[in-house]
Amino acid sequence: MMTLAQGIGITFVVAFLFYKSIAGLLAGILIIPFWLRLKKEEKRVQYQAQMESEYKEYMMLIVASLQTGYSLERALNQAEAELKKLYPQGSILLASVHIMNQKITMNVQVEKAFDEFAKTTGLEEAASLSEIISFAKRCGGDYGRHIRETAMKIEDNISVKQEIETITTEKRLELKVMCVMPMLILAYISLTSASFIAPLYGNIVGVGLMSGCLILYGILIVIGRKIIDIKV
């Protein structure tokens, strides 16, 4: 609801700055789905980053338990208890972890339970670790060592992602400022030198030109977001 309210507010701002007419609201309405999509993607990225952060901690807990000599089943259960302590206010991952451990308690094979956990979370790192667990269980040997080595590699990969996120935080802030500045400049000119841009309003040519600028404005915002979206 908050995002929708923001979209409606932006619609009114665009109608005033780009068209200065009630009819401009019709064009501004098209911005609402665009804004909702941007915010949805932003929340998805935040959710994914939080899940990856929690998963990294979860893997380290599993590795620590395996190093103390616990079996994989017990290590997974112990890691869940420690995860509750790390995130007392609530964890995105905890519900899926609990379901997985419940399945293992009901004699579901650990590799099958972990594979279902990986599919539920949608994490590539969890899917990779699931394959290693399945392979280690089939082939035997020191599967604990293989799982530890794989978990460490995945942890390094997630750490790189988080480091890139930290490095690009400043650029993300700069992008937000750059996205707002054109609107502020147009608002300033409209309030202080209305006659300077008056020919852009109330005629077909002006409406077409402002509509083109608005479309280009949206395209550049999307391009800017893609530039700082670095995949690992």
Protein model, in words:
This protein is mainly alpha-helical. It has helices at 2-19, 24-29, 31-67, 72-86, 94-105, 110-121, 124-139, 143-167, 169-192, 194-197, 204-227. Helix 3 packs across helix 4, helix 3 (31-67) runs antiparallel to helix 8 and helix 6 packs antiparallel against helix 7 (124-139). The mean pLDDT is 82.
Principal-axes shape call: elongated
Structural class: mainly alpha
C-alpha Rg, in Å? Answer: 25 Å
How large a portion of the residues is in β-strands, by DSSP E? under 5%
Helicity, as a percent range: over 70%
Oligomer: single chain
Helix count equals 11
The profile of the biggest β sheet is:
none
Listing every helix as H and every strand as E from the N terminus to the C terminus, the arrangement reads HHHHHHHHHHH
Mean pLDDT: 82
Overall number of strands: 0
Low-confidence segments, given as residue ranges, are: none
Measured between the Cα atoms of the first and last residue, the distance is 33 Å
